[in-house]
Amino acid sequence: MSKPSIALNRFGYGLRYGERPPSDPARYLLAQIDGFDPSPAGISARADMSAKPGEILQMLRQLRRQRRQNASPQSTQMAPMMESDTAADPFNGLPPEVRQSYVKAGQFLSTDVGLRTNVAVTSPTPFAERLVHFWSNHFSVSARKPGTHYLVGDLEFRAIRPHISGRFSDMLKAAVLHPAMLLYLDQFQSVGPNSPSQQRRRGRAGGRERGLNENLAREILELHTLGVDGGYTQADVTEFARALTGWSVQGIARVERFSAPQKSGAAFVAVAHEPGTRQVLGNRYSQADARQAIAILDDLATHPATARFIATKLARHFAGDTPPTSLVDRLETDFQRTGGDLSSLTQTLISAPEVWVEGPVKFRQPYEWFIAMLRLTRIDNMNDRRLSGILRQIGQLPWHAPSPAGYDDIEGIWAGPDALFRRAELSERIARSARADDVLGRAEAAFPGALSDNTRTWLSRAESGRQGLGLLLISPEMLRR
User: Fold this and answer.
1) What's the pTM?
2) CB neighbours of 197 closer than 8 A, spacing ≥ 6?
3) Is 22 a residue whose pLDDT tops 50?
4) 478: closest CA among 426, 408, 436?
5) In the chain, what is the greatest distance between 2 CA atoms, to the nearest angstrom?
6) What is the number of H-type helices and E-type strands within the chain?
7) What is residue 162's DSSP assignment?
Protein backbone atom coordinates (compact mmCIF):
# COMPACT_ATOMS: atom_id res chain seq x y z
CA MET A 1 0.00 0.00 0.00
CA SER A 2 1.20 3.49 -0.81
CA LYS A 3 1.10 6.25 1.81
CA PRO A 4 -1.80 8.09 0.11
CA SER A 5 -3.79 4.83 0.08
CA ILE A 6 -2.94 4.20 3.74
CA ALA A 7 -4.08 7.71 4.70
CA LEU A 8 -7.36 7.20 2.86
CA ASN A 9 -8.17 3.67 3.89
CA ARG A 10 -6.23 2.61 6.99
CA PHE A 11 -6.85 5.90 8.78
CA GLY A 12 -10.04 7.05 7.13
CA TYR A 13 -13.17 5.73 5.44
CA GLY A 14 -11.80 5.76 1.92
CA LEU A 15 -11.92 8.19 -0.96
CA ARG A 16 -15.19 9.90 -1.73
CA TYR A 17 -16.11 9.60 -5.41
CA GLY A 18 -15.00 12.70 -7.29
CA GLU A 19 -12.26 13.68 -4.82
CA ARG A 20 -8.52 13.40 -5.36
CA PRO A 21 -6.03 11.37 -3.32
CA PRO A 22 -3.90 13.43 -0.91
CA SER A 23 -0.49 14.60 -2.10
CA ASP A 24 0.82 14.91 1.49
CA PRO A 25 -0.78 12.04 3.46
CA ALA A 26 0.34 13.03 6.97
CA ARG A 27 -0.66 16.67 6.52
CA TYR A 28 -3.98 15.50 5.07
CA LEU A 29 -4.70 13.61 8.29
CA LEU A 30 -3.55 16.38 10.63
CA ALA A 31 -5.69 18.92 8.77
CA GLN A 32 -8.75 16.75 9.40
CA ILE A 33 -8.26 16.97 13.14
CA ASP A 34 -8.01 20.75 12.94
CA GLY A 35 -10.99 20.99 10.59
CA PHE A 36 -13.28 18.50 12.34
CA ASP A 37 -16.78 19.76 13.08
CA PRO A 38 -18.08 18.02 16.23
CA SER A 39 -21.59 19.31 15.63
CA PRO A 40 -22.47 19.33 11.91
CA ALA A 41 -25.89 20.50 10.79
CA GLY A 42 -27.78 17.24 11.25
CA ILE A 43 -26.43 16.66 14.74
CA SER A 44 -26.83 20.24 15.91
CA ALA A 45 -30.47 20.18 14.78
CA ARG A 46 -31.19 16.93 16.60
CA ALA A 47 -33.76 17.13 19.39
CA ASP A 48 -32.42 17.45 22.93
CA MET A 49 -32.96 14.13 24.68
CA SER A 50 -31.76 15.19 28.13
CA ALA A 51 -35.29 15.01 29.55
CA LYS A 52 -36.04 11.54 28.16
CA PRO A 53 -34.61 9.24 30.88
CA GLY A 54 -37.62 9.78 33.16
CA GLU A 55 -40.01 8.90 30.34
CA ILE A 56 -37.93 5.82 29.54
CA LEU A 57 -37.98 4.64 33.15
CA GLN A 58 -41.73 5.10 33.23
CA MET A 59 -42.01 2.92 30.11
CA LEU A 60 -39.89 0.23 31.72
CA ARG A 61 -41.95 0.28 34.91
CA GLN A 62 -45.13 -0.13 32.88
CA LEU A 63 -43.53 -2.98 30.97
CA ARG A 64 -42.53 -4.83 34.15
CA ARG A 65 -45.90 -4.18 35.79
CA GLN A 66 -47.80 -5.50 32.79
CA ARG A 67 -45.66 -8.63 32.63
CA ARG A 68 -46.09 -9.32 36.33
CA GLN A 69 -49.86 -9.04 35.95
CA ASN A 70 -50.17 -11.22 32.86
CA ALA A 71 -47.24 -13.61 32.97
CA SER A 72 -47.21 -17.21 34.12
CA PRO A 73 -44.48 -18.25 36.60
CA GLN A 74 -42.41 -19.55 33.71
CA SER A 75 -42.64 -16.35 31.67
CA THR A 76 -41.97 -14.26 34.79
CA GLN A 77 -38.64 -16.06 35.14
CA MET A 78 -37.87 -15.20 31.52
CA ALA A 79 -38.64 -11.50 31.89
CA PRO A 80 -35.10 -10.30 32.74
CA MET A 81 -33.75 -12.08 29.67
CA MET A 82 -36.46 -10.58 27.48
CA GLU A 83 -35.76 -7.09 28.71
CA SER A 84 -32.13 -7.31 27.59
CA ASP A 85 -32.77 -8.99 24.26
CA THR A 86 -34.51 -7.13 21.46
CA ALA A 87 -34.96 -10.42 19.59
CA ALA A 88 -37.88 -11.10 21.97
CA ASP A 89 -41.18 -9.31 21.30
CA PRO A 90 -41.20 -6.32 23.70
CA PHE A 91 -44.80 -5.46 22.82
CA ASN A 92 -46.50 -8.63 23.99
CA GLY A 93 -49.36 -7.73 26.34
CA LEU A 94 -48.55 -4.02 26.52
CA PRO A 95 -51.20 -1.28 26.61
CA PRO A 96 -51.48 0.70 23.34
CA GLU A 97 -49.86 3.82 24.78
CA VAL A 98 -46.79 1.88 25.94
CA ARG A 99 -46.58 0.09 22.60
CA GLN A 100 -46.70 3.46 20.88
CA SER A 101 -43.88 4.77 23.08
CA TYR A 102 -41.69 1.81 22.14
CA VAL A 103 -42.41 2.24 18.43
CA LYS A 104 -41.54 5.94 18.69
CA ALA A 105 -38.30 5.14 20.52
CA GLY A 106 -37.33 2.60 17.84
CA GLN A 107 -37.98 5.13 15.10
CA PHE A 108 -35.87 7.70 16.90
CA LEU A 109 -33.00 5.21 17.19
CA SER A 110 -33.23 4.42 13.47
CA THR A 111 -33.02 8.14 12.72
CA ASP A 112 -29.88 8.45 14.88
CA VAL A 113 -28.25 5.49 13.09
CA GLY A 114 -29.00 7.15 9.76
CA LEU A 115 -27.67 10.49 11.00
CA ARG A 116 -24.43 8.97 12.25
CA THR A 117 -23.91 6.99 9.04
CA ASN A 118 -24.69 9.80 6.62
CA VAL A 119 -22.42 12.19 8.51
CA ALA A 120 -19.54 9.74 8.02
CA VAL A 121 -20.40 9.15 4.35
CA THR A 122 -20.39 12.85 3.46
CA SER A 123 -17.73 14.04 5.92
CA PRO A 124 -14.66 15.92 4.63
CA THR A 125 -12.86 14.62 7.74
CA PRO A 126 -13.27 10.81 7.59
CA PHE A 127 -10.25 10.16 9.83
CA ALA A 128 -11.84 12.25 12.58
CA GLU A 129 -15.08 10.29 12.14
CA ARG A 130 -13.10 7.06 12.55
CA LEU A 131 -11.78 8.39 15.86
CA VAL A 132 -15.32 9.25 16.96
CA HIS A 133 -16.45 5.70 16.24
CA PHE A 134 -13.38 4.18 17.91
CA TRP A 135 -14.05 6.08 21.14
CA SER A 136 -17.79 5.46 20.94
CA ASN A 137 -17.11 1.73 20.80
CA HIS A 138 -14.66 2.07 23.69
CA PHE A 139 -17.48 3.59 25.78
CA SER A 140 -20.02 1.18 24.37
CA VAL A 141 -23.70 1.45 25.28
CA SER A 142 -26.11 -0.90 23.56
CA ALA A 143 -29.71 -0.29 22.51
CA ARG A 144 -30.23 -4.02 22.96
CA LYS A 145 -31.34 -2.95 26.41
CA PRO A 146 -34.80 -1.39 26.12
CA GLY A 147 -34.90 2.16 27.34
CA THR A 148 -31.61 3.33 25.84
CA HIS A 149 -33.03 4.06 22.37
CA TYR A 150 -33.22 7.82 22.85
CA LEU A 151 -29.85 8.03 24.55
CA VAL A 152 -27.21 5.94 22.76
CA GLY A 153 -26.86 8.39 19.91
CA ASP A 154 -26.86 11.30 22.34
CA LEU A 155 -23.87 9.82 24.17
CA GLU A 156 -21.82 9.71 20.97
CA PHE A 157 -23.00 13.08 19.70
CA ARG A 158 -22.60 15.02 22.95
CA ALA A 159 -20.07 13.10 25.06
CA ILE A 160 -17.67 11.69 22.44
CA ARG A 161 -17.61 14.00 19.41
CA PRO A 162 -16.67 17.21 21.30
CA HIS A 163 -13.77 15.50 23.09
CA ILE A 164 -11.78 13.57 20.45
CA SER A 165 -9.05 16.24 20.53
CA GLY A 166 -9.40 17.11 24.19
CA ARG A 167 -8.29 15.36 27.34
CA PHE A 168 -9.16 11.75 28.00
CA SER A 169 -10.32 12.64 31.51
CA ASP A 170 -12.99 14.95 30.08
CA MET A 171 -14.24 12.33 27.62
CA LEU A 172 -14.22 9.70 30.36
CA LYS A 173 -16.39 11.78 32.70
CA ALA A 174 -18.74 12.86 29.92
CA ALA A 175 -19.25 9.28 28.72
CA VAL A 176 -19.53 7.26 31.94
CA LEU A 177 -21.73 9.84 33.68
CA HIS A 178 -24.02 10.24 30.68
CA PRO A 179 -27.64 9.08 31.20
CA ALA A 180 -27.21 6.38 28.54
CA MET A 181 -24.40 4.74 30.51
CA LEU A 182 -26.14 5.24 33.86
CA LEU A 183 -29.25 3.55 32.49
CA TYR A 184 -27.45 0.82 30.54
CA LEU A 185 -25.41 -0.36 33.52
CA ASP A 186 -28.19 0.16 36.10
CA GLN A 187 -26.28 2.84 37.97
CA PHE A 188 -29.46 4.93 38.32
CA GLN A 189 -30.79 2.44 40.89
CA SER A 190 -27.61 2.06 42.96
CA VAL A 191 -28.04 3.31 46.52
CA GLY A 192 -25.46 3.59 49.27
CA PRO A 193 -26.06 1.06 52.11
CA ASN A 194 -25.72 3.82 54.72
CA SER A 195 -27.15 6.67 52.69
CA PRO A 196 -30.00 8.83 54.09
CA SER A 197 -32.33 7.28 51.53
CA GLN A 198 -31.55 3.74 52.65
CA GLN A 199 -31.82 4.63 56.31
CA ARG A 200 -35.28 6.08 55.77
CA ARG A 201 -36.33 2.91 53.97
CA ARG A 202 -35.18 0.81 56.91
CA GLY A 203 -37.21 2.99 59.25
CA ARG A 204 -40.44 2.50 57.33
CA ALA A 205 -42.58 -0.56 57.94
CA GLY A 206 -42.45 -2.71 54.86
CA GLY A 207 -39.88 -0.46 53.19
CA ARG A 208 -37.98 -2.28 50.45
CA GLU A 209 -34.24 -1.66 50.55
CA ARG A 210 -32.31 -0.93 47.38
CA GLY A 211 -28.80 -2.24 47.06
CA LEU A 212 -25.40 -1.17 45.85
CA ASN A 213 -24.89 -1.85 42.13
CA GLU A 214 -21.28 -2.42 41.06
CA ASN A 215 -21.82 -2.67 37.28
CA LEU A 216 -20.64 0.81 36.34
CA ALA A 217 -17.67 0.81 38.70
CA ARG A 218 -16.46 -2.54 37.39
CA GLU A 219 -16.83 -1.61 33.72
CA ILE A 220 -15.05 1.71 34.18
CA LEU A 221 -12.08 -0.08 35.70
CA GLU A 222 -12.09 -3.08 33.36
CA LEU A 223 -13.20 -1.63 30.03
CA HIS A 224 -12.73 2.14 30.09
CA THR A 225 -9.53 2.81 32.05
CA LEU A 226 -7.16 0.28 33.65
CA GLY A 227 -8.07 -2.86 31.73
CA VAL A 228 -8.78 -6.31 33.09
CA ASP A 229 -5.16 -6.71 34.27
CA GLY A 230 -4.89 -3.15 35.55
CA GLY A 231 -4.11 -4.03 39.15
CA TYR A 232 -7.43 -3.28 40.83
CA THR A 233 -9.12 -5.56 43.37
CA GLN A 234 -12.70 -6.41 44.26
CA ALA A 235 -12.37 -4.03 47.20
CA ASP A 236 -11.53 -1.24 44.74
CA VAL A 237 -14.64 -2.07 42.71
CA THR A 238 -16.87 -1.94 45.78
CA GLU A 239 -15.37 1.29 47.09
CA PHE A 240 -15.66 2.92 43.69
CA ALA A 241 -19.28 1.76 43.44
CA ARG A 242 -19.98 3.45 46.78
CA ALA A 243 -18.40 6.66 45.50
CA LEU A 244 -20.64 6.52 42.41
CA THR A 245 -23.87 6.22 44.41
CA GLY A 246 -26.14 9.17 43.84
CA TRP A 247 -25.31 9.46 40.14
CA SER A 248 -28.64 8.90 38.44
CA VAL A 249 -30.87 10.26 35.67
CA GLN A 250 -33.39 13.08 35.62
CA GLY A 251 -37.10 12.48 35.76
CA ILE A 252 -37.39 9.93 38.59
CA ALA A 253 -40.43 11.33 40.35
CA ARG A 254 -39.77 9.92 43.81
CA VAL A 255 -36.38 11.65 44.13
CA GLU A 256 -36.85 14.67 41.84
CA ARG A 257 -36.80 17.16 44.72
CA PHE A 258 -33.45 15.77 45.93
CA SER A 259 -31.81 15.82 42.46
CA ALA A 260 -29.18 18.22 41.16
CA PRO A 261 -29.52 18.23 37.33
CA GLN A 262 -26.36 17.92 35.23
CA LYS A 263 -25.85 19.30 31.70
CA SER A 264 -25.80 15.83 30.16
CA GLY A 265 -29.23 14.95 31.49
CA ALA A 266 -27.80 13.05 34.43
CA ALA A 267 -28.66 14.01 37.98
CA PHE A 268 -26.94 13.67 41.33
CA VAL A 269 -29.24 12.52 44.12
CA ALA A 270 -27.39 13.39 47.32
CA VAL A 271 -29.68 11.36 49.61
CA ALA A 272 -28.65 8.14 47.77
CA HIS A 273 -24.90 8.78 48.11
CA GLU A 274 -22.87 6.63 50.50
CA PRO A 275 -21.26 8.95 53.07
CA GLY A 276 -17.65 8.70 54.15
CA THR A 277 -14.13 8.52 52.79
CA ARG A 278 -13.35 5.99 50.05
CA GLN A 279 -10.06 4.24 49.34
CA VAL A 280 -9.46 3.17 45.72
CA LEU A 281 -6.13 1.86 44.37
CA GLY A 282 -4.41 3.03 47.54
CA ASN A 283 -5.68 6.61 47.31
CA ARG A 284 -8.07 8.20 49.80
CA TYR A 285 -11.00 10.31 48.64
CA SER A 286 -12.77 12.40 51.27
CA GLN A 287 -14.72 14.64 48.86
CA ALA A 288 -18.43 14.94 49.49
CA ASP A 289 -21.27 14.06 47.16
CA ALA A 290 -20.72 14.18 43.37
CA ARG A 291 -17.13 15.37 43.67
CA GLN A 292 -15.95 12.06 45.11
CA ALA A 293 -16.59 9.97 41.99
CA ILE A 294 -15.26 12.75 39.76
CA ALA A 295 -11.99 12.86 41.72
CA ILE A 296 -11.56 9.09 41.29
CA LEU A 297 -12.32 9.34 37.56
CA ASP A 298 -9.69 12.07 37.14
CA ASP A 299 -7.06 9.85 38.77
CA LEU A 300 -8.08 6.80 36.75
CA ALA A 301 -7.81 8.82 33.53
CA THR A 302 -4.09 9.44 34.06
CA HIS A 303 -3.16 6.13 35.70
CA PRO A 304 -0.18 4.30 34.08
CA ALA A 305 -2.32 1.21 33.49
CA THR A 306 -4.86 3.36 31.64
CA ALA A 307 -2.10 4.74 29.42
CA ARG A 308 -1.04 1.20 28.47
CA PHE A 309 -4.58 -0.02 27.95
CA ILE A 310 -5.61 2.89 25.72
CA ALA A 311 -2.34 2.74 23.77
CA THR A 312 -2.85 -0.97 23.06
CA LYS A 313 -6.43 -0.53 21.86
CA LEU A 314 -5.55 2.41 19.61
CA ALA A 315 -2.55 0.58 18.15
CA ARG A 316 -4.65 -2.53 17.53
CA HIS A 317 -7.26 -0.50 15.68
CA PHE A 318 -4.82 1.18 13.33
CA ALA A 319 -1.81 -1.14 13.10
CA GLY A 320 -3.08 -4.72 13.26
CA ASP A 321 -4.70 -7.31 15.51
CA THR A 322 -1.30 -7.89 17.14
CA PRO A 323 0.10 -4.37 17.15
CA PRO A 324 3.86 -3.72 17.25
CA THR A 325 5.10 -3.34 20.80
CA SER A 326 7.13 -0.33 19.71
CA LEU A 327 3.96 1.48 18.65
CA VAL A 328 2.17 0.64 21.90
CA ASP A 329 5.21 1.93 23.83
CA ARG A 330 5.27 5.11 21.77
CA LEU A 331 1.59 5.85 22.38
CA GLU A 332 1.81 4.93 26.05
CA THR A 333 4.71 7.32 26.56
CA ASP A 334 2.81 10.17 24.91
CA PHE A 335 -0.32 9.48 26.98
CA GLN A 336 1.66 9.54 30.23
CA ARG A 337 3.73 12.58 29.24
CA THR A 338 0.71 14.69 28.36
CA GLY A 339 -1.70 13.36 30.96
CA GLY A 340 -4.00 11.93 28.32
CA ASP A 341 -4.03 14.73 25.72
CA LEU A 342 -5.86 13.05 22.83
CA SER A 343 -4.74 15.60 20.25
CA SER A 344 -1.11 14.81 21.05
CA LEU A 345 -1.87 11.09 21.08
CA THR A 346 -3.42 11.33 17.60
CA GLN A 347 -0.42 13.27 16.27
CA THR A 348 1.90 10.62 17.70
CA LEU A 349 -0.15 7.93 15.97
CA ILE A 350 0.06 9.72 12.62
CA SER A 351 3.82 10.23 12.90
CA ALA A 352 4.57 6.63 13.97
CA PRO A 353 6.35 4.61 11.24
CA GLU A 354 4.59 1.41 12.39
CA VAL A 355 1.23 2.58 11.00
CA TRP A 356 2.66 3.29 7.54
CA VAL A 357 3.88 -0.22 6.71
CA GLU A 358 3.03 -1.19 3.12
CA GLY A 359 1.03 -4.39 3.52
CA PRO A 360 -2.60 -4.44 4.70
CA VAL A 361 -2.72 -4.80 8.48
CA LYS A 362 -6.46 -4.94 9.29
CA PHE A 363 -9.62 -6.57 8.01
CA ARG A 364 -12.29 -3.93 7.70
CA GLN A 365 -15.18 -4.33 10.11
CA PRO A 366 -18.61 -4.40 8.43
CA TYR A 367 -19.51 -0.84 9.38
CA GLU A 368 -16.30 0.76 8.14
CA TRP A 369 -16.44 -1.31 4.93
CA PHE A 370 -20.01 -0.16 4.34
CA ILE A 371 -19.11 3.51 4.89
CA ALA A 372 -16.15 3.17 2.51
CA MET A 373 -18.44 1.57 -0.07
CA LEU A 374 -21.00 4.39 0.13
CA ARG A 375 -18.26 7.01 -0.12
CA LEU A 376 -16.78 5.33 -3.20
CA THR A 377 -20.18 5.05 -4.92
CA ARG A 378 -21.33 8.45 -3.62
CA ILE A 379 -24.60 7.05 -2.35
CA ASP A 380 -25.56 9.42 0.43
CA ASN A 381 -29.33 9.54 0.23
CA MET A 382 -30.24 6.13 1.64
CA ASN A 383 -33.18 6.34 4.04
CA ASP A 384 -32.78 5.58 7.72
CA ARG A 385 -34.80 2.40 7.78
CA ARG A 386 -32.89 0.87 4.87
CA LEU A 387 -29.55 1.83 6.43
CA SER A 388 -30.46 0.14 9.71
CA GLY A 389 -31.67 -2.96 7.87
CA ILE A 390 -28.43 -3.29 5.88
CA LEU A 391 -26.22 -2.75 8.92
CA ARG A 392 -28.18 -5.34 10.88
CA GLN A 393 -27.84 -7.75 7.96
CA ILE A 394 -24.04 -7.42 7.76
CA GLY A 395 -23.76 -7.75 11.52
CA GLN A 396 -22.70 -4.37 12.90
CA LEU A 397 -25.60 -2.06 13.63
CA PRO A 398 -24.25 0.95 15.57
CA TRP A 399 -24.89 0.94 19.32
CA HIS A 400 -25.93 -2.73 19.34
CA ALA A 401 -22.77 -4.44 20.59
CA PRO A 402 -23.47 -7.69 22.45
CA SER A 403 -21.76 -6.55 25.66
CA PRO A 404 -20.36 -3.42 27.37
CA ALA A 405 -16.98 -4.34 25.84
CA GLY A 406 -18.26 -3.10 22.47
CA TYR A 407 -17.72 -4.72 19.10
CA ASP A 408 -14.56 -6.83 18.78
CA ASP A 409 -11.68 -5.37 16.81
CA ILE A 410 -10.03 -8.51 15.46
CA GLU A 411 -10.33 -10.22 12.08
CA GLY A 412 -11.56 -13.60 13.29
CA ILE A 413 -14.87 -12.10 14.40
CA TRP A 414 -15.69 -10.59 11.01
CA ALA A 415 -14.10 -12.76 8.30
CA GLY A 416 -16.25 -15.91 8.41
CA PRO A 417 -17.71 -17.42 5.19
CA ASP A 418 -21.27 -16.33 5.95
CA ALA A 419 -20.18 -12.76 6.67
CA LEU A 420 -18.23 -12.61 3.40
CA PHE A 421 -21.21 -13.96 1.48
CA ARG A 422 -23.39 -11.19 2.91
CA ARG A 423 -20.87 -8.58 1.85
CA ALA A 424 -20.71 -10.00 -1.68
CA GLU A 425 -24.49 -9.98 -1.91
CA LEU A 426 -24.68 -6.38 -0.71
CA SER A 427 -21.90 -5.29 -3.08
CA GLU A 428 -23.93 -6.57 -6.01
CA ARG A 429 -27.05 -4.73 -4.83
CA ILE A 430 -25.20 -1.46 -4.29
CA ALA A 431 -23.52 -1.70 -7.70
CA ARG A 432 -26.93 -1.98 -9.37
CA SER A 433 -28.03 1.36 -7.92
CA ALA A 434 -24.80 3.38 -8.31
CA ARG A 435 -23.02 5.09 -11.16
CA ALA A 436 -20.78 2.52 -12.83
CA ASP A 437 -18.68 4.58 -15.24
CA ASP A 438 -14.87 4.34 -15.35
CA VAL A 439 -14.63 1.70 -12.62
CA LEU A 440 -10.93 1.09 -13.20
CA GLY A 441 -10.15 4.80 -12.97
CA ARG A 442 -12.20 5.03 -9.80
CA ALA A 443 -10.27 2.10 -8.33
CA GLU A 444 -6.91 3.68 -9.17
CA ALA A 445 -7.99 6.90 -7.42
CA ALA A 446 -9.39 5.11 -4.36
CA PHE A 447 -6.26 2.97 -3.91
CA PRO A 448 -3.48 5.11 -5.39
CA GLY A 449 -0.36 3.07 -6.00
CA ALA A 450 -1.95 0.13 -4.18
CA LEU A 451 -4.28 -1.57 -6.69
CA SER A 452 -3.04 -5.13 -7.26
CA ASP A 453 -2.50 -6.59 -10.72
CA ASN A 454 -5.04 -9.29 -9.90
CA THR A 455 -7.79 -6.77 -9.05
CA ARG A 456 -6.92 -4.69 -12.10
CA THR A 457 -7.22 -7.77 -14.32
CA TRP A 458 -10.63 -8.76 -12.91
CA LEU A 459 -11.97 -5.23 -13.34
CA SER A 460 -10.77 -5.04 -16.94
CA ARG A 461 -12.46 -8.36 -17.73
CA ALA A 462 -15.83 -7.40 -16.27
CA GLU A 463 -18.72 -7.75 -18.72
CA SER A 464 -20.22 -4.42 -17.66
CA GLY A 465 -19.49 -1.41 -15.55
CA ARG A 466 -21.93 -2.60 -12.89
CA GLN A 467 -20.29 -6.00 -12.68
CA GLY A 468 -16.90 -4.32 -12.43
CA LEU A 469 -18.13 -2.02 -9.65
CA GLY A 470 -19.55 -5.00 -7.76
CA LEU A 471 -16.18 -6.75 -8.03
CA LEU A 472 -14.35 -3.63 -6.82
CA LEU A 473 -16.59 -3.31 -3.76
CA ILE A 474 -15.69 -6.83 -2.62
CA SER A 475 -12.05 -6.74 -3.73
CA PRO A 476 -9.16 -7.40 -1.31
CA GLU A 477 -8.36 -3.67 -1.39
CA MET A 478 -11.85 -2.87 -0.10
CA LEU A 479 -11.89 -5.62 2.49
CA ARG A 480 -8.51 -4.85 4.04
CA ARG A 481 -6.70 -1.72 5.07
Assistant:
1) 0.92
2) 191, 210, 255, 269, 271, 272
3) yes
4) 426
5) 82
6) 25, 5
7) G
